[in-house]
């Protein structure tokens, strides 16, 4: 009855979209601002900055925009830095950043911080295939040791490119699909393990399929 303990914790929200957009409005001292996006293994996937300083008597520059194509079933951390420890808002302009999904769901937003600020989020659900518009596509054999065949039941759904990612979100192989032969993917050069094949079309349509290399 006398055992008491208190701990504060936060729950990282899960998002089903694998495309995440960044809108970054710098203040007038853009050279102070940098950022990076890392996965759960700490690998840096994207980074940006420093940007350009602007005259305080003039309007703020146009926002910077970036698009992140992320692997399913992983956690990510967006970290933004200010080199003089005064953030992006509000003494030298109303700077801010916003991370959103392709459906404009806000993942994180901010601007008033000191040296840095980090926001974490999760993409996907364990053991679930992420499908966003690119359907009637499957792969065989799975598991495979040499070649992964992509089958498209409807030619109008033929993907335009593919990317192979490991469970840490690192890109191992990527290629544009121009011919039927490109749908036969040689995976003999990658190690045994679990991977994700991300098929993309028109940037907004994706299908991420888990496969095993034996």
Write the layout of secondary structure elements.
Layout: E1 14-15, E2 19-25, E3 33-39, E4 44-48, E5 64-69, E6 74-82, E7 96-101, E8 106-110, E9 116-123, E10 130-132, E11 137-140, E12 147-152, E13 161-166, E14 171-176, E15 184-186, E16 193-201, E17 205-213
Parallel strand pairs: 1-9
Antiparallel strand pairs: 2-5, 2-7, 3-4, 3-6, 6-9, 7-8, 10-17, 11-12, 12-15, 13-14, 13-16, 16-17
Describe this structure in words.
This protein has two domains: about 15-125, Immunoglobulin-like, CATH 2.60.40; about 130-214, Immunoglobulins (Immunoglobulin-like, Sandwich). The chain is built from no helices and 17 strands. It starts with 13 loop residues before the first strand and ends with a strand. Strand 3 (about 35-40) and strand 4 (about 45-50) form a beta hairpin. By secondary structure, it is mostly beta strands. A five-stranded mixed beta sheet has the order 1-9-6-3-4, with no helix packed on it.
How many domains? 2
Total beta strand runs: 17
Please give the count of helices: 0
Largest sheet: 5 strands, mixed
List segments where confidence is low: pLDDT < 50 over at least 5 consecutive residues.
Answer: 126-131
Q: From the 3D coordinates, which CATH architecture of the largest domain would you assign?
A: Sandwich
What is the class of the largest domain in the CATH system?
Mainly Beta
- What overall geometry do the principal axes of the alpha carbons give? globular
What number is the mean pLDDT?
A: 88
Report the span from N to C terminus: 53 Å
List SSEs in N-to-C order: EEEEEEEEEEEEEEEEE
* Strands side by side in the biggest sheet: 1-9-6-3-4
């Amino acid at each position: 009855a006398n055992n008491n303990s208190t701990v504060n914790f936060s729950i990282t929200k899960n998002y089903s979209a694998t495309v995440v957009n960044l809108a970054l409005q710098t203040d007038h001292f853009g050279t102070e601002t940098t950022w990076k996006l890392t996965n759960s293994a700490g690998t840096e996937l994207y980074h940006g900055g420093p940007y350009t300083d602007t005259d305080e008597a003039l309007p703020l520059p146009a926002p910077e925009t970036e698009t992140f194509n992320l692997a399913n079933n992983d956690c990510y951390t967006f970290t933004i830095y200010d080199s003089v420890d005064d953030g992006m808002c509000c003494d030298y302009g109303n700077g801010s950043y916003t991370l959103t999904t392709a459906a404009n769901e806000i993942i994180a937003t901010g601007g008033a911080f000191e040296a840095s600020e980090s926001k974490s989020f999760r993409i996907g659900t364990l053991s679930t295939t992420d499908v966003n518009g690119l359907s009637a596509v499957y792969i065989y054999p799975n598991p495979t040791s040499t070649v992964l065949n992509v089958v498209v039941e409807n030619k109008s759904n033929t993907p335009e490119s593919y990317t192979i990612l490991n469970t840490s979100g690192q890109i191992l192989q990527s290629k544009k699909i121009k011919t039927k032969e490109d749908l036969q993917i040689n995976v003999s050069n990658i190690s045994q393990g679990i991977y994700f094949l991300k098929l993309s079309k028109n940037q907004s349509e994706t299908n991420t399929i888990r496969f095993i290399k034996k």
